[in-house]
Amino acid sequence: MIEDNYRQIYSWAKILEKIVANITPDIAQECADFCFAAIQFNLAMMQGGREKMLVPKFAKTLEYVKHVKSGGIQNIPSTEKDNFEQLFVWTEILDDIAENLEFDILNECESFCAAIIKAGIAKIQSDQERALARKFTEVIEKIQSYNPYIAYPAPVCKNRSTAAFDDPRHDQSEIIAQKLHYMRHCLGRIQHVYNRSDDAYEKSCRIYKAFMPKTITSIGKIRIGGQGDGGYVMPDLDYAKKKVKIAYSFGVSSSSPWDSQMANLGYDVFQYDGTIDAPPERHPNLHFYRYNISAEANPPENQRNIRHILTEHGHFGKNIILQCDIEGFEWEMFKTMNENEMEQFEMIIVEFHGLADLNRFDYHLNILEKINRTHQAVHVHCNNAGASLFLQGLRLLPSIWEVTYVRKTDYIFTDCHETFPSIYDMPNIPQYPDIFLGKFNNDIGTSVEHV
Asked: What pLDDT does residue 103 have?
């Protein structure tokens, strides 16, 4: 059930009160963690004038939840109820939770409620109570058969643009478990957004189509830059033997494992980042410039645009590898680059940000289609540190995409039959699973109608 944020918070406060009255203190503390995260999320979503004015009214509610969360009910005597009454209470709590809870916590709380009801059934001794217990066994079966995908089935795309969402593995229990684990991470950071509209699903399909990878004929892949964040999957081009070895790294930050490994392979890596005073590592092949990347034709003194950088170093016609992670500024950079400047890069490895914001859908899609005119995506991976847009059928539109492109004129391509994430990928945040994308091609038993 979808309610406004104000009613959601009220519902959560009532659920917590009911739990506190019917549960042991240690479990109430754990449940308060869920309630606290849910109330915080709804408060963060209260943006409208009327709703925003109501936010201060929930200060006492949050204080109460914090009190329970910190173990503040240890001295409250538990309410004594017979086993049969306890079963009724927990069934009511489960109904309340099912009405007001998102997928990840709902799945976990239902398992918890099932365990409580099972324990109550086990304590029932009399013949009359045992007869009643059989009715609650049906409740257990209903809980255990719960599947969030079935509850919110994915729509059929009217103009399906990619088969990635149709990969049947999206509905397998282990993939659903991975997604729920990732969604719990997003909820904890108050980052997740739900949009179950057909329009959001259609637009997300078109974003996936813009990233649809191809396979380079007779060339494998390699991971450069370590096992975690900062490592990228690239075509295995035997980089150590290449004659021209020039790479650009835009956005160095406090760690640059990709830069270091490329430098060790003999590449001159030109690093640009105006947000740090010095590079994190020193190497004869690393050349650091304290400038941010600009999209302006005449940038300020502390910035450089692509044309200036290529001209200053005499790199036109040098077949450069570009690695770019500039926290959202990549959109303006690509928007202002002309085709000749794009063609200077034999490979582009870029981290795109903000794709879960469908308010900028047209802007993002136009730039992605511009890149696709000169370059072909050959690998995709989604950064699990970012937010995702949760769609119908438990499908995701991740906000941060790491995409490897190669220049179209350099290679022959075939359809890609890989599953993403691939064997070369690693989660950016290791304690959470990678984001499952599936296959992009139509070899999974579903036809693909291109937009």
From this structure: 42
Query: What sign has the CA pseudo-torsion 395, 401, 404, 407?
Result: positive
State both tokens at 3: 């309610």
pLDDT tens column, 388-426: 887 877 788 999 999 999 999 999 999 998 999 999 999
Paired with 67 in beta bridges are none
Contact 400, 381 (CB under 8 A): no
- Which SS3 state, helix, strand or coil, does residue 314 take? coil
Residue 5: what are its φ and ψ, rounded to 5°? -65, -35
**Segment (H or E) for 232:** strand 232-235
How much is the average pLDDT of 288-309?
93
Tell me if residue 238 falls in helix, strand or coil.
coil
The answer to whether the beta carbons of residues 280 and 297 sit under 8 Å apart is no
Residue 284, preceding bond cis, omega within 30 degrees? no
Average pLDDT over residues 199-224: 92
The residue ranges of every structural domain in the chain are 5-155, 183-415
**Number of CB atoms found within 10 A of residue 362's CB:** 10
Which pLDDT band, with edges at 50, 70 and 90, does 115 fall under? low
Q: Could you give the dihedral angle defined by the CA atoms of residues 203, 208, 211 and 216, in that order, rounded to the nearest 10 degrees?
A: -150
68 contacts 20 by C-beta, under 8 angstroms: yes
CATH number of 183-415, picked from 2.40.70, 2.60.120, 1.10.3470, 3.40.50:
3.40.50
* 0.85 exceeded by pTM: no
Determine contact, residues 422/233, Cβ cutoff 8 Å.
yes
